[in-house]
Task: structure prediction
Amino acid sequence: MSEPKDPPKDPIAFELFKNAIFSIADEMALTVFRTTYSGVLKDNMDYSTGFADAQGKLVAQGLTLPGHLGSVPTALDSIMRHYGDNMNPGDVFIMNDPFDGGMHLPDIFVFKPLYHAGKRLAFAATVCHHTDVGGRVAGSNASDSTEIYAEGLRIAPLKLYDAGKLNDTIMTFIERNVRLPVKVFGDLRAQLAACHIAEQQFAELVAKHGPEQTADFMRETVDHAERLTRASLARLPDGEWSFEDWIDDDGIDYGKPIRLFVTIRKTGDHMVVDWTGTSPQVKGAINNTLSFTKAASYTGIRSVLPPGIPNNEGVFRAIEVICPPGTVGNGVLPAACAARGLTGFRMVDCMFGALAMMLPDKVKAAGDGGNTGISIGGYDAARKPFIYVDFTCGAWGARPWADGLDGNSHMFANMASHSIEVTEAEEPIQLLAYEFVADKAGAGKYRGGVPFRRDYRFLEEEGTLQVRSDRRDHRPFGLYGGSPGGPSENYLNPQAENRILPGKFTMTVKRGDIFRHVLAGAGGWGDPLERDPAAVLKDVRNELLSAAKAAADYGVVVDTVRWAIDAAASAKLREEIRRARGWSEVPKVQWHDPPTPGHGAVRAAE
Result:
């Protein structure tokens, strides 16, 4: 690890340069947003952009996903390992192999080295989740695949352009192996456009500062982030904290929970995040790559650090992430990983559990478990393929100072929601409902975020529905007396047979079938009996909470005729609930239905 150098002699010039580099990364992200073809990019915004130095070290990450925090450095390491001595102006690299720098197959990386006077000075970096990369299930993200070879086209680090000349062989392989080549090629062109924008704007910076000063300023941008990170870590308490959480199952071995276990060790200005003790890799496609586990770890730590620290290599130098190979957090061949997003999101919640013991006044309870992945694909009467990919999430855990957010993307995702009108215009799908669901938010002094449900009606003759969801058996945990959130739910044809579906599945749907998904509610924070009765009344009036649930969870009696609180009845009910508890204190973490002895165990070392 290199020690950060002293700050630059001209801090004003450095500050201007630093913001210019950040602006380039953001402009790249906006370029993808403006030019992409697919809904998963233009609506869900499942992509990231970045800017790296000549050695492939990340200097700036653009707008969009924290989930890609660890991906660009790992992917660029692979490019440097394969091509470090074989790069030229006009080269562009492509890759998606999870076992050679990638994350999962739908995430395709495009990198362009940037030159000045024949010398490489930087890299423009993009990664986008593509609608389809082939494989056994449309959308290429089925959770019930059991090996990487079933998941789609696996692209080793390759030159897409060699000295400015397009490799037609690679493009032909991609075209013949994906269901929607027009969308895939359109999205690849969006990535190339972002790299082109970066090249133009970086050339202007080099012309202004010169190549040597530009390289120095990029190095200082990384060192600056390291100094800020270490200074912030140094102000946190030293110690060791561990936390355990469980994924319901992998979609293959139903009912077999999967353990996530993290230990955070903090000493001085350095932190270690150790996932030793996490379950071995599983048959289903929810195995993480190490880069995604790193991203979840960085995101958890960043949530308790001050704002304003750049997302770059400097942050990563101060935080060491350990996850043994062959575990669900660091899969090895032939691990399936298409649905690895589920595990990454749940690792962020697991981080919150450990951090809540370290910093009880700064960390929120568990959210809805991260995004649910829903894919609907098939062929129309003319055998033209269609694929709809939706990632949906929206309930934050309660915070020590406020309720959890309702209808807001998970911190790890930073995604937007599909436009219903655009979806119905482009896909054989009708959205019948998109609404909050009452009585599922975890109770607490501050309640968890309220989840929503969506009803999808299928309009084509036949198709394949693939769903990746969780938090049914192991509900989102509450903190410091807060209750767990309500479980997620899946139903087929709720207006008729109302068939209950598992959390993860792939099935055939017919014209007129309706699929309903209900997100899990988020966990609460603090004793529900300490909640302000006025806040309870507001939730009942807004149909986020029923009057019966208000009485049962909060001891608040609401008169729904006059829309008023019965103060005397509420005081009496709260006292009865306290006596029935027989508790002198509320527990730190509230769990639901422990699957094994010791579930939910936490430990803190002074």
Q: What stands out?
A: The chain has a mean pLDDT of 93. The chain has 13 helices and 25 strands. The longest helix spans residues 181-209. Residues 126 and 397 are 31 Å apart (CA to CA).
